[in-house]
């Protein structure tokens, strides 16, 4: 297992639509293990492969609380096949939009079809935090961020804040973008 860097907005790779996995093999399982290690280290409760710059349809989630045994679930090619008309609101955050949280309304319950770590087809019906996390991470696979579910004004403000921070960081001595030499 290895920690991988998490990409953050305004990195446009977060807007890529991730590609399906043809077959769950050792490489895909290694990716899942790296994603779990990265997610736990961050710390977070969910991570999509695109967040570590891998545009593949893989998601890991663990909604266990601190002090409980870990309950990681790996989802390959997940898709929502049903969602409730009933809605719920959770304050969401994202490892790719650090330290920004906003209330987001989503279906309260969903059913998703996916392949597990062994490549077996499964379905899961989720509610509460797991339903929210699953929808949030599947959105990532489709190039959608949780800020796309909030008002345009709030979304533009947070985007500008991160663009400004990225420009500031690029001007820091020692940052690769600061080096003006040509390659």
- Percent of residues in beta strands: 25-35%
Biggest beta sheet summary: 5 strands, antiparallel
CATH topology: Peptide Deformylase
- Would you identify the CATH architecture? Alpha-Beta Complex
Distance between the ends: 32 Å
Count of β-strands = 7
CATH classification, class level: Alpha Beta
Rg computed from alpha carbons, rounded to a whole number of angstroms? 17 Å
Q: Which structural class do you get from the secondary structure elements? A: alpha+beta
Level of helix content? 25-40%
- How many H/I helical runs? 3
Overall geometry: globular
What is the H/E string? HEEEEEEEHH
Overall pLDDT level: 93
Kindly report the spatial arrangement of strands forming the biggest sheet: 1-2-3-6-7
Low-confidence runs: 175-183
């Amino acid at each position: 297992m290895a920690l991988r860097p998490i990409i953050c907005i305004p990195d446009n790779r977060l807007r890529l639509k991730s590609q399906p996995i043809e077959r769950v093999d050792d490489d895909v399982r290694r990716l899942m293990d790296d994603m779990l290690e990265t997610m736990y280290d961050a710390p977070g409760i969910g991570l999509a492969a695109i967040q570590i710059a891998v545009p593949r349809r893989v998601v890991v989630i663990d909604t266990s609380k601190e002090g409980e045994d870990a309950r990681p679930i790996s989802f390959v090619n997940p898709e929502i096949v049903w969602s409730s008309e009933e809605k719920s609101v959770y304050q969401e955050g994202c490892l790719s939009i650090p330290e920004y949280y906003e209330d987001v309304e989503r279906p309260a319950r969903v059913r998703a079809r996916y392949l597990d770590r062994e490549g077996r087809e499964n379905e899961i019906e989720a509610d509460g935090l797991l339903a929210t996390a699953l929808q949030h991470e599947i959105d990532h696979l489709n190039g959608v961020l949780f800020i796309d579910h909030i008002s345009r004004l709030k979304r533009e403000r947070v985007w500008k804040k991160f663009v400004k921070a990225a420009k500031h960081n690029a001007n820091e001595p020692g940052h690769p973008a600061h080096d003006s030499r040509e390659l």
